[in-house]
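Submission sheet (multi-component)
Chains listed below:
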Amino acid sequence: MRHFSNSHLTLAGFIGISLSLHGVLLLNTSSETHEISIPSHSGSLSVALVQRPNQPTPTSGKPDASPIEKSAEVVPSAASVAKGEISDKVEKFAQTEKPAKSEIDQREQPAKTDAKQATQAAQAATSTRASNEIKRELTTRLQTHFEYPILAVRRGWQGDVQLSFRVLSNGNLINIRVARSSGYALLDHSALEALRRVNHVRETIHWMHQDHLDLTLPVRYQLKEG
Amino acid sequence: MKPIHSLVLSAPLAMLALPVWADDDTIIVTATRTAQSIDEALASVTVITSEQIEQRQAQSLEQLLRNEAGLHFVVNGGLGKQSSLLMRGTSENHTLLLVDGVRMGSATAGSLPIAHIPLHEIERIEIARGPRTSLYGSDAIGGVVHIFTKASADEGRSEAQIRYGSYNTSEYNAGMHWGTRDFNYSLQASALATDGFDSIDGNNTDADGYTRNTVNLGLNYRLNNKGKISVSSMQASGMNEYDNVYAASNTDLYTNTYKLAANSVKFDLQFSETWQSRLNLSNSIDGYIDYINGTDNGRFNTERNQLTWQNDLSLSARTLTTVGLDYLNETVSSNTTTYTDTQRNNTALFAQNQWKWKQSDLLIALRSDLSDSYGTNTTGNLSYGLEHHGLRSFFALGTAFHAPTFNDLYWPSVGNPDLKPEQSQNIEIGTGAKGAITSWSLNIYQNNVTNLIAWAPVDPLDPAGPWQPSNINSASIQGIEWLLDATFGNWTAGFGIDLLEARDASTKTLLPRRPQQMVKFSLDGRLFGTDVGAHIKHVGEHFDDVFNTTTISAYTLVDLTLNKAIGKRWLVNARIDNALDVDYETSAGYNNPRRSYSIGVKYELDR
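Outcome: structure written.
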């Protein structure tokens, strides 16, 4: 029963994310096209985006498995790289989701730069709105991995733990930390361990349009009267 | 109970409809609150909250708990009089009574201070039926009644109440609670006085009064999530007038004064994220001074000092490993009785492990007690709980023991220092289901108690000569508890049946004062903004003596309660005890309260 509804949820959730991401893409394409079409702007935007992987990268992750690291390697310095090359990288990296690409191709066939810019805009949006959606999807996906420790139930311990972590586009969860304690070390530990055990959410490969996402995830341990 | 993950079911739909989210994607991990003593998935447990205590307005543990499954009280006449709790057909000293983890009772007589436990100070009571010696040590044969006072609670409120009722019974209590979650302290005090009524007809015809004055202090200090220090102290003292069946003269006045104390300091330490350690240093006092016509007729005092070091290891969310060490020193004193030994020590090691799987639970517990007065005793529990199609069942095996009292072992010239502890083997099956409207449970148990200590004439042909105790009796107890609860809106109805067959294993006679049938019914709800309640208990006819010749008639008690809040801070409540005005006995010859009324007014801060 539970299995059924879970897979149903997953599908619905995936469609939901997919649709809303496309919505975001389309919205941004139409509203920001003229602004981004200024060449100098376009260049600096691309550079800014590609530079992201150069930000402090996780220490506890697996650098070899991460595509971000690969893209970072091909971008030695923002200034020395040709504009088009960077754009291509960005496009290649971002447009992993086929429907998104074909849709944009259909609408904006001649203006390839527009498509690139749209993707960039989408990436910017990903870190704001889409991150929430990914987070929501993660929430439902991770839910079943959390358990209430017997000892905490026995002692009547309740509380909110806030976990912070980074989702890589390959689906790996790294840098898992307790951002805010519940007041009970056992609950904090249990939440942390649960997320560490998950370690990898394969589906994120389809959702992520950028290098990584830093998220905080609140976990509430709550006893009900029964 | 396994954690139930409350999925946000509407999430995918909401996603399609609305692309902007509030940042509330919280993972909610829930579990059913359980008793601290034992998981409800593995035993028959009842938890009574301070709200329920407030609703029922009882003035003694007997009034409060007499409708609970498996419990039968014997009271020798009204408030404060000698009261015994016979849990699941076992003897009066086969229940372990704990106050904030502190062992209560007299080590000389083996009796529990059921009559003197104050109720306003109580935050929660856990009744765990069945043997629990493998966790707590001696006495937990029929079960454990664990009282948690408000001193141990992190939260509380300030309140004051006055109450007046039949038999010129007045009661005053006030409580205060200050501080934060990290540092708080509380103080409760109460005073009760009643004129009472004549306990035994024709045996000194005056009313037998009672007083009870109590103080409960608590202090909780949290150390940076690394631990907690809790200090709690419950004290009760007062005077009790009673009638003595063996009185030499009908004009003699029998009274006693009593003093109870349960003091403890607990250190909860977090050695690591998964290792929780609790060191409990406790002291308890149970003291009586008996008077005839105002003259000291004997003092009996029990003092216990106990050190318990319990370690809970949470090696995974699905296991709980407990290992601990328990040291108990019992010292008795008397000014009239020169016990051949006045002190004993018991050292115990205990370990238990609980496993939780998706639909089942397993608990294995072992404890070894080494006493310098009655040797080594090893007891254990094995419980398996299963959840299947909404049906929650458990199967439990347990052994337990009750230590001989100082009276049994060391009474001058007749005490028997070779006595062994009374022992029991209990087997139990429980099943039940919890629904939105109705819930029910059915428990069936068989408890064999051997080595029961009984006093008999040293020379069987000379009953007037000296008597001596020995481990001669054994009992066979079978019982069924069936409970059914239903909730309709603001109303809750409860129905319960207790069937019991407690017999002497050799003579096959029924054990005295163990009713074979008890039926209860309760109805609680709201009417015109007032909380009303009716609690009915029927006790079948049973015997008062071991020979099964003196009967105690069947009786039905109806208690009615009413609670009305006036504004945010005032509460008016009333109780009618024994509304049918039944003249009943729980112990042959002793009167019990007839229909009695009481009314109270309460003022609360921050209700």
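Remark: Strands of chain A lie at 159-168, 173-180, 212-224.
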